[in-house]
């Protein structure tokens, strides 16, 4: 199957998924969207209320801000793939349970394998825990690390900056400086044959020291 077909298959499965209770209160699943061959994949925590109604990730106010942030990195939404750790909205935007994250983990693992991005941007604490389970986002945001054969950068979720003005400039700085640097480093490593496709089990990561 092509990456497009694989992503379509995953999306169809999420729309009828009942693996965890989140589907009970959701309007629709939000599997993700973007280029099937994207060099950069951005992963949030869970769909917002607006995402849940539209079926599109990062489609509300945080999405407008994300588009602005991507432009700071010299990117556009059309060039990347956007998704979340879970594919159904969390009621009242509460913190996800371990059961909910585990239930959805295979979908994300398959999406990453299908797209095979060089760079993953983990947006927010919940997404960062997938790749850096013991780290605090306040300590690692903006740092590029090799995880399971690709570059991963943890950053604050754009929604956090909309609710906490003191984070806004930090988020802008990370997208303006850290993300382009991570992309450049990923391209250099790829050219040297040092990046590779994941072959880890669902949710398993292999963290290495920060690149810069």
Description of the molecule:
- The protein has 212 residues and is of the alpha/beta class.
- The protein has one domain (3-196): 3-Layer(aba) Sandwich (Uracil-DNA Glycosylase, subunit E).
- Helix content is 46%, strand content 14%.
- Strands 1-3-2-4-6-5-7 form a 7-stranded mixed beta sheet.
- The protein starts with a helix and ends with a strand.
Topology (elements, then pairings):
Elements: H1 3-15, H2 22-25, E1 33-34, E2 40-44, H3 49-54, H4 61-72, E3 81-84, H5 98-115, E4 119-123, H6 125-131, H7 137-140, E5 144-147, E6 150-155, H8 158-163, H9 165-191, E7 207-210
Parallel strand pairs: 2-3, 2-4, 4-6
Antiparallel strand pairs: 1-3, 5-6, 5-7
Strand order of the largest sheet: 1-3-2-4-6-5-7
**SS-based structural class?**
alpha/beta
* Shape, per Cα inertia axes: globular
**CATH fold title:** Uracil-DNA Glycosylase, subunit E
Question: Helical amount among residues, as a percent range?
Answer: 40-55%
- Main CATH class: Alpha Beta
Cα distance spanning the termini: 37 Å
Count of beta strands: 7
The biggest sheet amounts to: 7 strands, mixed
Going by CATH, the homologous superfamily would be: Uracil-DNA glycosylase-like domain
Number of helices: 9
What's the SSE pattern? HHEEHHEHEHHEEHHE
Low-pLDDT runs: 197-209
Averaged pLDDT, please? 90
Estimated radius of gyration: 16 Å
Strand content: 5-15%
Supply the number of structural domains: 1
